[in-house]
Design a protein that fits this description.
The complex is a heterodimer of chains A (784) and B (224). Chain A has 33 helices and 13 strands. Chain A has 784 residues and is an alpha+beta fold. Among the domains of chain A are: 1-30 and 270-397, Up-down Bundle (Multidrug efflux transporter AcrB transmembrane fold); 98-172 and 532-562, no CATH class; 399-440 and 660-784, no CATH class. In chain A, the strands form four sheets. In chain A, strands 9, 10, 11, 12 and 13 form a five-stranded antiparallel β-sheet that branches. In chain A, strands 3-6-2-7 form a four-stranded antiparallel β-sheet, sandwiched between helices. In chain A, helix 15 runs antiparallel to helix 16 (331-360) and helix 32 packs antiparallel against helix 33. Chain B has helices at 3-15, 22-36, 49-57, 135-146, 150-156, 185-188; strands at 61-71, 79-88, 92-99, 103-108, 111-118, 121-128, 157-163, 168-174, 191-197, 200-207, 213-219. Chain B has one domain (24-219): Clam (outer membrane lipoprotein receptor (LolB), chain A), CATH 2.50.20. In chain B, strand 9 (191-197) and strand 10 (200-207) form a beta hairpin. With 224 residues, chain B is of the alpha+beta class. In chain B, strands 6-5-4-3-2-1-11-10-9-8-7 form an eleven-stranded antiparallel β-sheet. The chains are: A alpha+beta (784), B alpha+beta (224). The interface between A and B is large, with 43 and 50 residues.
């Protein structure tokens, strides 16, 4: 038959094209920030940007365990050197590192501008100089003498050391054998700051592999066969959890496929169904991938995973087709014609629902929408046009699993009597939902990528050991230029020092600590003496002291040079190791310059918003958790609104398709009550509320609910449907439960969330479909 | 040079509040401990390091005066320091400088305390030895000398002895480990030479890699 061959060759051609597109063009992105909501206020936007690229998320914490302390120390040194040498890191430090020459000379050359420590006014008075020289002489007599010797001649005021002290920060980590160790001395500790942003998981995974590779080489080099490496930090944790999800997903999908295929064989007794039944889903996934690739170039891994989940609804399509395709019922061509109106309406409503995702407006979710729309359209088309021509007209369906069929028939009939009970339950569920209120939803952003307690604890312990706390609270300072922001920071710095003195704040990290404003640097320059006056004052000050006569000539010329030097700006730090400390603390953001002031150990949170308010709109106090909570709430409300519009659109499609408002409402009753019942059930089974994964799963459940309602209503029309549509329904239901139930077995929270929600949801779809279906005036036949 | 080390040193030096330099402390400790491992009566012949260690270990407590001459590249004439050295078994050692400044440096177990009079105020800083890993082996190594533990001493120094029991000279040279990061000791000290008679130390000479040199003469007033 020519039409048949034309369709088949068109199908094969399209699938080949899709395969070529996917094989040659697809780039899977793993940038998690694509799924982060965009912020509304400027502090929110800055925070999102921070999550995307920020220093907090980038830092890698390393610990070396096992062996003895000397071997660990040697391994720590070797590993730090190897990693630093690899070029992937801005810096790697284990407590023993030294400041490279370029950075050191930048700080030393500009010491009189960068620090007040050695250039205070009184220091350069004759009396001040005398005091300074006497102090250095005392130092030479002290046990601390050797340290001073490097600085004594060129920098007797120790201004350079004051700058270094500013940069050294407040990290105070125990050392053993010259390297950082944990307080119990059982682990050697390192910090690594990679060049690549933390949110690109592929790059982070390569880094993790690189680090582990270097560690193996290191361990071999120092004969430390019993050494073990621990990697932590946000990016490393994300890589681990992704790998865990991947490996779980791999074995579970094999397990689920085998189970589903066995079940399909049991249910249809036909290898043809088992073989070709997968075509709509597989073809849909391929088409979805190809179209998304064409539209976006890069497709996010999560969009693919969720997309395949969403088009899981296409598993049902071949069930419906094959159940109606038996030769005795008129053959495949007639079979597909009979169910097509119902199937088409189901597909249309689902597509409208997915379209809501496209308009949800966030990068990742839009891709998910495009993927599932393309995928589902392809799956429906394959069911409609390809499956019939792959099915011979002699195709027959034996009565499979007659016992199951019989019992389910009775069950369905029994369910029809339970309307009032179900209605009560649904109302109760709705009331429960109202009572749970906002707690229903996850607000903790960290749960978006849920981690095991063990991983959390390990990270917390390393952070504590390394004195690298995560700043939950910060002030965000905004200004028209870097200079304006720095001047503002200098004022804020004073206030924060007061808070610190009153023990309301443990410590804080602020850009002006490292880089003073140009204005302040110029003030300092104005206080520096000329060479002549300094030389004169020095020779007066040194009278009677045993210092060599010409000892301080470099000091004099360097002070004189600093007096007329160009003030230091952010640009001078660019490309140095120091920039990595400074640049996250002061950066250009849109048309503004922004500086986060990280606050640690805040004991009086009330004083900080007050402090921020004094500066009007340009300073904002931010509690990361609160802001992410606000953002998640806004994100969710936006999504819910979009879903609501989606539901309205679905209603319109249903009214048009069914030709009756009443029928349309009745059809919507199934997914509505299913969702109302599923949400509290899932809520009690999970920890911390419903998240994005549950929402995606619920979206699939809504689609399933509509399909089940539509097909259950077919049973009303003709007696015959009980022999074709009803088996298709229960077989679809059990297949879906088998596939998604396997996912629910996973320890991985994402897979579990989806598996659990869909299994519960689809079961309720079947049950409530039976409950709410229109009753036949005639008796239901006893068997199929 | 390691920033953190600089800083910790700096803090003490500028504010008098925090810590001391590990390098100098190491040198001083080396000197002080050996100086103090002194009292006793017996005089030996054909002395080996082992024998000397054994005898020194028997000493339970001692007190001596020191007069130190520091030659520095920065000064036109050497600087003279003097004060008292006190040792108490098992692990307390105090260097009390009284001239030209008042500074007390106390090592007790794992603790290390520097007290200094500055502008009429007494500034004190205490650190654990673990904060100064460079110090730890010196202190532990020399404490091992007092305990007669030559094995630990030799972990850090090449130890040689010359002369007789009546007048011996002990030379400590930082040991090379092959790993650069383990050779920190040679950045701190080039050579420590000690002279003694019997179990009494009379002179300690420390030569630093920079060429700066310190010669300490020790007198034991109650023994002579």
């Amino acid at each position: 038959m020519p039409v048949r061959w034309r369709i088949l060759s068109a199908f094969i051609l399209l699938m080949s094209v899709a395969t070529v597109i996917v094989a040659t063009r697809l780039q899977v992105s793993s940038d998690l920030s694509m799924f982060l909501p965009g912020g509304a206020s400027w502090p929110q936007q800055v925070l999102v940007e921070e999550l995307r690229k920020g220093a907090n998320g980038r830092l890698i914490l390393l610990a070396i365990e096992g062996g003895d302390s000397a071997v660990r120390a040697r391994a720590s040194q070797e590993l730090a050197a190897a990693l630093q040498h690899s070029g992937h890191f801005v810096y790697v430090t284990n407590g023993s590192g030294s400041l490279p020459g370029r950075e050191r000379s930048l700080l030393m050359t500009n010491r009189y501008l960068l620090s007040d420590g050695g250039s205070a006014e009184e220091l350069f008075s004759a009396a001040g100089l005398r005091g300074m020289l006497e102090a250095r002489l005392a130092d030479l007599a002290s046990v601390a003498a050797p340290l001073i010797k490097t600085y004594l001649a060129n920098d007797p005021g120790l201004a350079g050391l004051a700058v270094l002290r500013q940069w050294a920060g407040e990290r105070d980590i125990r050392k053993s054998n010259g390297v950082w160790v944990s307080p119990d001395q059982q682990r050697a500790l390192l910090l690594a700051y990679p060049r690549s942003a933390g949110s690109n998981l592929d790059e982070q995974e390569q880094l993790a592999r690189k680090i582990r590779g270097e560690f193996v080489a290191t361990a071999a080099k120092v004969n430390g066969s019993s050494l073990a490496l621990i990697l932590s930090g946000p990016a490393m944790i994300a890589v681990d959890s992704r790998n865990e999800i991947r490996s779980d997903a791999q074995w579970l999908s094999v397990f689920a496929s085998v189970t589903a295929m066995l079940f399909l064989y049991l249910a249809f007794r036909s290898w043809r169904v088992v073989m070709f039944g997968i075509l709509p889903l597989a073809g849909g996934a391929l088409a979805g991938l190809a179209i998304t690739t064409l539209v976006y170039g890069q497709v996010h891994g999560i969009a693919i995973a969720f997309g395949v989940t969403l088009i899981g609804i296409a598993v049902d399509y071949p069930m419906h087709f094959y159940s109606h395709a038996a030769g005795s019922m008129g053959g495949p061509a007639l079979g597909i014609q009979r169910i097509w109106p119902t199937l088409r309406l189901g597909v249309m409503t689902t597509l409208v629902g997915f379209a809501a995702l496209v308009f949800a407006g966030y990068g990742g979710l839009t891709q998910l929408g495009v993927f599932s729309i393309a995928g589902l359209t392809a799956a429906a088309a394959i069911t409609r046009f390809v499956l019939p021509i792959l099915t011979p007209s002699s195709f027959e369906l034996p009565v499979a699993l007659p016992g199951v069929q019989q019992r389910l028939l009775q069950f369905a009939r029994f369910l029809g009597r339970l309307r009032s009970v179900v209605l009560l339950l649904t109302v109760a569920a709705a009331t429960t939902l109202v009572m749970i209120g906002n707690d229903l939803w996850q607000t903790d952003a960290s749960r978006m990528a849920p981690l095991s307690d063990e991983v959390r604890k390990r990270d917390a312990r390393l952070r504590q050991d390394l004195n690298a706390p995560f700043a939950d609270e910060m002030l965000l300072v905004r200004g028209a230029s870097a200079e304006a922001v720095l001047q503002k920071l200098e004022t804020i710095n004073e206030r924060l020092l007061q808070l610190k003195q009153r023990n309301q704040l443990q410590s804080f990290e602020i850009a002006s600590r490292y880089l003073p404003s140009v204005a302040r640097q110029q003030q300092r320059q104005a206080r520096l003496p000329t060479a002549e006056s300094l030389r004169a004052d020095l020779s007066w000050a040194a009278r009677g002291l045993p210092f060599r006569a010409d000892l301080f000539s470099t000091f004099v010329s360097e002070v004189a040079a600093a007096r007329v030097a160009k003030p230091v700006t952010l640009a001078d730090f660019h490309g140095t190791m120091l920039a990595e400390r400074l640049e996250p603390l002061l950066f250009e953001f849109g048309e503004y310059w922004v500086a986060p002031v990280l606050l640690y150990g805040v004991s009086d949170s009330a004083s900080l918003p007050v402090l921020a308010d004094n500066f009007g709109d340009s300073v904002s106090y931010v509690h990361t958790r609160n802001v992410t909570r606000e953002m998640m709430t806004a994100y969710r409300q936006h999504s819910l609104t979009v879903f609501l519009y989606g539901a309205l659109a679905i209603l319109v499609v249903l009214i048009l398709g069914l030709g009756s408002l009443k029928l349309a409402l009745r059809t919507l009753l199934v997914p509505l009550s299913v969702v109302l019942l599923t949400m509290p059930l899932v809520y009690v089974m999970v920890d911390g509320g419903l998240g994005l994964f549950h929402l995606v799963a619920l979206l699939l459940v809504v689609g399933l609910g509509i399909d089940y309602a539509l097909f259950f209503n077919r049973l009303y029309r003709r007696e015959q449907e009980w022999h074709s549509t009803f088996p298709a329904l229960w077989k679809s239901w059990l297949t879906t439960v088998l596939v998604f139930g396997s996912l629910a077995l996973s320890d991985t929270v994402v897979l579990q969330a989806i598996g659990l929600t869909v299994s519960i949801g689809v079961s309720l779809c079947f049950v409530l479909g039976a409950v709410w279906m229109r009753r036949r005036p005639v008796t239901i036949p006893g068997h199929g | 040079m390691c920033v953190a080390t600089l800083i910790t040193g700096l803090i003490f030096m500028t504010s008098g509040k925090k810590n001391i330099s590990k390098r100098h402390a190491a040198v001083m400790l080396a000197a002080t401990l050996i100086v103090l491992a002194a009292p006793g009566k017996a005089v030996y012949a054909g002395l080996t390091v082992d024998q000397l260690m054994q005898k020194l270990a028997a000493v339970k407590s001692s007190e001596a005066r020191f007069a130190e001459t520091r030659h520095s590249q920065f000064l036109e004439k050497p600087m003279k320091l003097s004060g008292k050295l006190i040792y108490e078994a098992p692990d307390t050692l105090i260097k009390q400088t009284t001239r030209p400044l008042n500074e007390t440096f106390t090592i007790k177990g794992q603790r290390l305390v520097v007290e200094r009079m500055q502008e009429g105020k007494k500034l004190q800083h205490e650190v654990g030895l673990h904060d100064f890993p460079a110090l730890a082996p010196v202190v532990l190594g020399l404490r091992s000398v007092l305990a007669g533990d030559l094995k630990t001493l030799e972990k850090y120094y090449d130890v040689t002895i010359q002369g007789s029991e009546q007048d011996w000279t002990l030379r400590l040279k930082p040991r090379r480990h092959g790993f650069e990061e383990d050779d920190w000791l040679k950045d701190v000290v080039k050579l420590v030479t000690m002279r003694g008679q019997g179990v009494l130390l009379s002179q300690v000479e420390i030569i630093e890699p920079s060429g700066d040199k310190s010669v300490t003469l020790i007198t034991h007033p109650d023994r002579r």
